[in-house]
Design brief:
five-stranded mixed β-sheet, four-stranded antiparallel β-sheet, globular, Nucleoside Triphosphate Pyrophosphohydrolase, 2 helices, alpha+beta, hydrolase, NUDIX_hydrolase_CS
């Protein structure tokens, strides 16, 4: 996984990230976010595959690249599901400057087109796995996973 470098502006940093919701046969593809290399007290949590968009990179291409880096799969973007934003206080950051960070996360639905499941090495995730959607509530996971599943279920209901 490539680390994005926040752009400093008016006393805060900004991070643009892209994630993919991939559901196949009732299971969701997740990556284990693991920052123990930077913070020994960090508790790994399951997240959607994705991450920081590089300078000059198209957002969709960032999602495609990140999914391949973290899971081994090549994907095709199907649809834009949501754009979310938030703020990370300076004291909760794991890297970069000592300023708060405004985050913008773009979520896409995607379909696997190739590749084989594998774990990322040398990045911020340490495993990739498929989980039945019914098992997700029992996982230690980031909020983004639940929000993505809600978008997926809403889309399925409308279809």
């Amino acid at each position: 996984m490539t680390t994005s470098v926040p752009v400093s502006s008016r006393g805060f940093d900004t991070r643009l990230a892209a994630y993919a919701l991939i559901v196949r046969d009732g299971s969701i593809l997740l990556a284990l976010w693991d920052m123990r290399g930077r913070d020994a007290s960090f508790v790994p949590r399951w997240t959607l595959p994705g991450g920081g968009v590089e300078l000059g990179e198209e957002i969709e291409n960032g999602a495609v690249r990140e999914v391949e880096e973290e899971t081994g799969y090549q994907i095709q973007i199907d649809a834009l599901l949501s754009v979310d934003s938030g703020t990370i206080p300076a004291h909760q950051r794991y890297s970069g400057t000592h300023q708060p960070m405004q985050t913008v996360a773009v979520l896409y639905s995607a379909t696997i087109t190739g590749g084989e499941l594998r774990d990322e090495t040398g990045g911020t995730t340490s495993a990739a796995a498929w989980f039945p959607l019914a098992d997700v509530p029992s996982l230690n996971r980031v909020d983004r996973v639940d929000a993505a599943i809600a978008h997926h279920q809403r889309h399925q209901h409308l279809a």
